[in-house]
Amino acid sequence: MPHSQRKKRSTSSAQKRTQVTDNDGWTHVTSGSNVRRVMRSTKRNDNELVTSEDQDDKPIIGPASAPARLTFEELEAQYKGYRERWVDSETWEMLQGHLGGRIHERVADESSRVNSAVSGSIDGIVCIGLGSPSGFLRDGWVDRRAVSMYQLAALECVKDVLSASGESPPLPRWEIFALGKANHSRTTGKTSFPIYAQDPAFNELDRALLESLGMTVVNHPVAFERLTSNTFLFCPGAERKHLEMLLPSNPCFVLGGPLENTESSVIQTYVEKTDSRVLIPFGAQEHAFWMMRLYFWVQGNDS
């Protein structure tokens, strides 16, 4: 037949790239032929998204790739928009009410001051697994920036509630010097308690943004070492193996999870010692706080 020896023209280069959002909120940029494989992906307990093809090859997470032309000023302006939407949400209104109520009880109940599990002022916030507010993950294939932005807004709002409650103790001078001017309140001029944020996905823009909000970005294992029974643990994306390292410190508050049904005895022990309130769905970005809970110590569960 005529032209029978002619090679067919490859169509691989002409395939269009498609954005696909899976059931866990991850956005993938992929070709049409890979859409089904992406949607078959499963989410492990350790918050690593994997497929059946790479179950044994867990990716190493490094700093996220921010858009080349993105400036700090633009990132800061973006964050302000996310924060405004979070502050105006019913989800934050509900969380603020529960958190404020628990702190009020904690301060008012003098007996808690001699309870080894819940005694003393909150000594700081440790944030694990926030993700990158500015960059793409997995070599540009995964976009979780909106999720991280909303979670960062929640973290800052939690800090404001704790500061307003008078729960934050004054920092020693050496720690004020170490943390820098960023940890001084932008509105009252008072020194706030420390906030340590740790995530291998943080890039330089992320660091600059967090530091502008009075947070200190640290490398492993500094944040783990700062955790005590009087610490507020903010862990929206912490892996199971990390939770098993963090929760034995019995933090007085944990915002993250859900921690139930993880098949981990260490995590379950913490769950059984605490009470919790589930956050109502966040309409602007459900995946950012999906089934997340506020866990807190209750009297009589300090054993």
Automatic annotation (TrEMBL):
Point out the signal peptide segment.
Answer: none
Q: Where is the composition biased (Basic residues)?
A: 1-10
Tell me which residues make up the SRR1-like domain.
118-296
What is the name of this protein? Answer: SRR1-like domain-containing protein
Entry superkingdom: Eukaryota
User: Which regions are flagged for Polar residues bias?
Assistant: 11-34
The record's region (Disordered) falls at 1-65
